[in-house]
Specification:
The complex is a heterodimer of chains A (577) and B (454). With 577 residues, chain A is mainly alpha-helical. In chain A, helix 3 runs antiparallel to helix 4 (95-110). In chain A, strand 1 (213-216) and strand 2 (219-222) form a beta hairpin. Chain A has two domains: 16-271 and 281-319, MetI-like fold (Orthogonal Bundle); 361-573, MetI-like (MetI-like fold). Chain A has helices at residues 9-14, 19-40, 62-93, 95-110, 113-127, 133-160, 164-172, 177-212, 226-235, 239-268, 285-292, 295-317, 328-360, 363-399, 402-417, 424-434, 438-464, 467-475, 480-514, 529-539, 542-573, and strands spanning 213-216, 219-222, 516-519, 522-525. Chain B has 454 residues and is α/β, with parallel strands linked by helices. Chain B has three domains: 9-86 and 162-258, P-loop containing nucleotide triphosphate hydrolases (Rossmann fold), CATH 3.40.50; 288-359, Orthogonal Bundle (Arc Repressor Mutant, subunit A); 378-451. Chain B is built from 16 helices and 16 strands. Chain B has helices at residues 55-62, 102-112, 117-130, 146-158, 176-191, 207-213, 244-258, 294-308, 314-321, 325-337, 352-359, 362-376, 378-389, 397-405, 410-426, 443-451; strands at residues 9-21, 28-40, 44-48, 70-75, 78-79, 87-90, 164-168, 199-204, 216-221, 226-232, 311-313, 341-344, 347-350, 394-396, 431-433, 438-440. The chains are: A mainly alpha (577), B alpha/beta (454). The interface between A and B is large, with 38 and 42 residues.
């Protein structure tokens, strides 16, 4: 297939000239109008505790609220992208910086995002007094922290694994730093970055809903959006409004997927590293429309001289470095000093944290949170086991049936990005009516979001098992449990590990809002680290917030190191298909 | 293009050595030792060596992509710091950016030099025309076949009109026919005098390719890489493969490459002296095993027995099997080492045991293989000895790897170990459990040794 300069005849027949352009123009105008309307809302005045924006439970307002939430999501996505490019670039190009930045990223990834809220909300409100912008910023920041680490890791990994010969070609042909960045590094990272961004964005809906209506330091804050609509509906005990909210968020997720992510994924296919055409190129009707229209191309052509000048200017600023010789002995000496400095800083921080916790809450509290952490850990474990037992057979059955898989995979992806907190109230109602203790119920709540990762990866894993192996298994008469033991479990193992890591991380994070839920005036509480953090946040107990977050991070990091990494290694070596 | 001054030195490496640090601070591994090489204008120079001879490293040092540990590279008389501006390179894997069209890929170097858009386009189109890719300007690399991709690689280098064109095994990723075709076209272009560079430096492990393209073939030795000598290809261009001297040259180089101890003088007509047996290495773990599978050795021997009554010309075997030096030489070396065959003067002759090995049943061939190993491979003998001395007849793999690490860079040590395990398993000298990373004596042997009073 050759790339055409003009739209293919089929494309022209499908969309007579002009129609594509008209839809592109109209679409752009609608988008601009929407952003202007939604953006204006962020500037209204706000003086807590007297003037707080109120939420109208009339479903007519839902599109507006959903729009505000979506705008926040996109602002956060933009910030994440910029942060990713800068942080990833520095970490990949400075060996020393990487030694701090990468472990830091690893830890930040494990810190429960919702625990941050209390710190950031107070900070941002102080930054923008008398305006909703502070709350907006705090909410955006919460979404940002939920999605950025994944993206940064992906970008960093891509930069580190640029094929050696391509990198050599870039050096030999003397590409400037800017040219290398735009022509080699970013393109080779694009596909990974986009997929990660899309998955993180899906996860972000959970946090936008959780961060719009929160109580921090004995104050209730409300930010117009679909999450605060949900919160208001819970307080007013209106199941109908809850239903409308769930429907709206479902529509919004599908729209964003169709109008934003699909076209991007379809476009990014050209950045595939394989030097041969891929069998199944992703498709998107929006991308086809944009390609068929002439306006984007005309505008592109008109802008060429400008981009050319900018590129040349930036290239002149980033001339290729031509220092080859390095004094290795001095370097190692400097390295030693650097390592020593790092150790000192880390030591000081550890001592300071210990001192802070010991002088404020004491060692007994530390032991108590550790116990609570164990309880939450038990819940996460039960969740993983039950979800695996239930969903792996289903996933394998779907994965072994290509037609079914193609049909259901997008559905499962949608379910994974559907924010579980929109289902929480229904579950809460059920628990209240059936008198189920939240100590058990919270497992179900955590599972509402996390289970889909297990299902999704089981499907993917089953699809990866070669048909030859399946036929062989049938041929030698492997059946039932033996078939699982010899073929399926080893075959989907590495996919399952990927799903398990994601599910467990999601469950820990979700514990903060699923171990304490309410319906109207009644509140259910489970004993665990999540509810401990949530309660400390509500009353603004700084030492306990710090301790709770630190303990949870410790659990997550520890589990990753001791458990998941081992499994990952096993998956990479022994069960690699 | 500048007028060509014969013998004008363009790029010169002087006493270049290169070592890479070993992991975990275990010292350094010497890749190149004291290499001096000059590329003059108007000549095609070929660097020929087996894997481990550091030929690609040398090329990259002369291109300014990696710094030498010692010595210096001069380009046009000036010492080189950083990427060499007088050089363009054609890569083995093509190194095209998949997201740029053919034309954008070709324009890459010009863009970096700040050439204006219109001029860039003109020059790129000319270069694309030169390599015969007219009409593919707006195609993406993934739409092209391997040969066409490498044409883009050539166009990208040509467009810069470098003084010296560097080629890093440019045809080895292509299938045989495509490689032949492209090689011929490049040669035609050079012979026609319209080549966009003044000289060519090509790295290859294909002997015939080197003789066909080059005016001078530099033969590199391995571990550490060093220059063994050079062979001047004194044939009229273009080098006719049917010419008797062509075959003489190829035979001479084959002999030189199969006998690492021989001195390469370049005097082709004088027969090379028969190889003397190498001095036994100090430690059994310093012995270099050729990395081949047992099946490969017996396959080669069977082929020679069946077709040529146990004697064959190495060049013809390589040609028939379409094997490059890197594939064939280790096989010959292994056959030689295990005394299954004798390799002299570009000929291979099977020994009695070699004949037996090639024609017998699998069980008997295992016995034969074990006998030859115990006689000729001290490393495996020592490994079995070590296992016997242990009461449980087993040993961690790390133990042997550490011993090998003293004599080889770590990666090579791992390959040595893998080869030793493969041979040892085939000969049923020991067993290896990959998940536990341990080596065991086979059950029957442990039973015997445990009966011995300790």
């Amino acid at each position: 297939m050759l790339k055409r300069t003009f739209p293919s005849p089929e494309a022209l027949r499908r969309l007579p000239f002009g129609l594509a352009d008209v839809s592109v123009i109209l679409g752009t105008l609608v988008l601009l109008a929407l952003v202007a309307r939604l953006g204006a809302g962020t500037l209204i005045s706000f003086h807590p505790p007297d003037i707080v924006p109120s939420i109208d439970l009339n479903p007519h307002h839902l599109p507006y609220y959903a729009g505000r939430s979506t705008l926040r999501m996109f602002i956060a996505l933009f910030c994440s992208t910029v942060f990713t490019l800068v942080y990833g670039y520095i970490a990949a190009h400075s060996r020393r910086a990487a030694r701090v930045m990468i472990p830091l990223l690893d830890i930040l990834q494990s810190v429960p995002v919702l625990g941050f809220l209390s710190i950031t909300v107070t900070g941002f409100i102080a930054l923008f007094p008398g305006s909703l912008l502070g709350l907006e910023a705090a909410s955006v920041f919460a979404i940002f922290t939920s999605q950025v680490w994944n993206m940064t890791f992906s970008f960093y990994q891509s930069l580190r694994t640029v094929p050696n010969e391509l990198s050599e070609a870039a050096t030999l042909y003397q590409l400037s730093g800017w040219q290398r960045f735009t022509k080699l590094e970013v393109p080779s990272a694009t596909i990974g970055l986009l997929w990660n961004a899309m998955m993180s964005f899906g996860g972000g809906w959970f946090f936008v809903a959780a961060s719009e209506a929160i109580s921090v330091l004995n104050q209730k804050y409300t930010l117009p959006g679909i999450g605060s609509y949900l919160a208001a509906a819970i307080v007013a005990e209106k199941p109908a409004a809850l239903g409308w909210a769930a429907l709206t968020i479902a529509i919004v997720i599908i729209l964003v997927d169709q109008l934003f992510w699909r076209p991007l994924i379809a476009w990014s296919d050209k950045f595939r590293m394989e030097q041969s055409a891929s069998a199944e190129a992703p498709e998107s009707w929006v991308y086809d429309l944009l390609k068929a229209a002439r306006i984007p191309r005309l505008m592109g052509n008109a802008l060429t001289p400008i981009s050319e000048t900018t590129n040349r200017f930036l290239s002149a600023l980033t001339r290729p470095r031509s220092t080859l010789t390095m004094d290795t002995s001095r370097q190692t000496k400097d390295d030693r000093v650097y390592t020593l400095l790092l150790l000192l800083v880390i030591g000081a921080l550890a001592v300071w944290t210990l001192h802070f916790i010991l002088t404020t809450v004491g060692l007994a509290e530390v032991a108590k949170t550790f116990g609570l952490g164990l309880l939450t850990f038990l819940r996460v474990t039960v969740l993983l086991i039950v979800a695996t037992v239930i969903w792996t057979p289903v996933g394998v059955a779907i994965g072994f049936n290509p037609k079914l898989a193609r049909l259901l995979q997008p559905v499962v992806l949608f379910l994974a990005s559907f924010p579980a907190n929109f289902i929480f109230p229904f579950a809460t109602l059920f628990f209240i009516q059936t008198h189920i203790s939240l100590n058990w119920g919270s497992i179900v709540l955590m599972a509402l979001g996390a289970q889909w990762y297990i299902l999704f990866n089981s499907i993917a894993g089953a699809q990866n098992i070669p048909t030859d192996l399946r036929e062989m298994a049938a041929d030698v008469g492997l059946k039932g449990w033996k078939r699982w033991q010899k073929l399926i479990i080893p075959g989907i193992f590495s996919s399952w590990v990927t799903g398990g890591i994601t599910a467990s991380g999601g469950a820990w994070n979700a514990s903060i809002i699923s171990e304490i839920v309410s319906w109207g005036q009644s509140t259910l509480t489970a004993t665990g680290l999540g509810s401990y953090i949530a309660q400390a946040t509500e009353v603004g107990d700084w030492p306990r917030i710090t301790l709770g977050i630190a303990m949870m991070s410790l659990f997550v990091v520890g589990l990753n190191r001791l458990f998941w990494r081992q499994l990952y290694h096993l998956a990479e070596t022994k069960y690699h298909l | 293009m500048k007028p060509m001054l014969a013998n004008e030195s363009l790029i010169a490496a002087q006493h270049v050595s290169k070592s890479f640090p070993l992991p975990e601070g275990k010292g350094e591994h010497l890749v190149l030792r004291e290499v001096s090489l000059t590329v003059r204008s108007g000549e095609v120079v070929s660097l020929l060596g087996r894997s481990g001879s550091g030929k690609s490293t040398l090329l990259r040092i002369m291109a300014g992509l990696i710094p030498p540990s010692q010595g210096q590279v001069f380009s046009n008389g000036k010492p080189l710091r950083g990427a060499n501006h007088d050089v363009a390179m054609v890569f083995q894997s093509f190194a095209l950016l998949p997201w740029l069209t053919v034309q954008e890929n070709v324009e890459l170097g010009l863009d970096a030099r700040g050439v204006h858009r219109e001029e860039r386009r003109q020059r790129a189109l000319k270069a694309i025309d030169l390599v015969g890719l007219d009409g593919f300007e707006s195609a993406y690399p993934k739409e092209l076949s391997g040969g066409m991709k490498q044409r883009v690689g050539f166009a990208r280098a040509f467009v810069l009109q470098p003084q010296v064109l560097f080629m890093d095994e440019p045809f080895s990723a292509l299938d045989v026919l495509t490689a032949e075709n492209l090689r011929g076209e490049i040669d035609d272009l050079w012979n026609a005098g319209t080549f966009p560079s003044q000289s060519i430096l090509i790295v290859t492990h294909n002997i015939e390719e080197a003789v066909f393209l080059a005016d001078r073939v530099i033969i590199l030795g391995s571990n550490p890489g060093r220059i063994r000598g050079e062979v001047v290809i004194d044939l009229p261009r273009s080098h006719d493969r049917a010419h008797p001297h062509f075959k003489e040259l190829v035979d001479y180089i084959y002999t030189a490459m199969t006998n690492p101890e021989l001195k390469v003088t370049g005097a082709v007509s004088a027969k090379l002296p028969v190889s003397t047996p190498p001095v036994a290495p100090v430690s059994p773990y310093a012995q270099h095993l050729p990395h081949v599978r047992v099946g490969g050795i017996s396959g080669l021997l069977e082929l020679i027995v069946e077709s040529t009554q146990g004697e064959a010309d190495v060049y013809q075997v390589a040609d028939r099997l379409r094997l490059t030096v890197d594939d064939l030489l280790p096989l010959l070396e292994a056959a030689d080492l295990l005394n299954f065959a004798e390799v002299t003067q570009g000929d291979i002759k099977l020994t009695a045991s070699g004949r037996d090995f090639a024609t017998t049943t699998i069980l008997r061939s295992k016995d034969l293989f074990r006998q030859q190993i115990l006689e000729h491979v001290p490393m495996l003998v020592s490994m079995v000895q070590t296992l016997r001395e242990k009461r449980n007849g087993s040993m961690r793999a790390d133990f042997f790897l550490d011993l090998l690490d003293e004599h080889f860079p770590h990666e090579e040590a791992e390959r040595q170990f893998a080869t030793a395990v493969d041979w040892g398993r085939y000969a049923e000298l020991f067993e290896y459990d990959a998940s536990e990373d341990r080596i065991y004596l086979p059950e029957s042997v442990t039973a015997v040794s445990s009966e011995e009073p300790s």
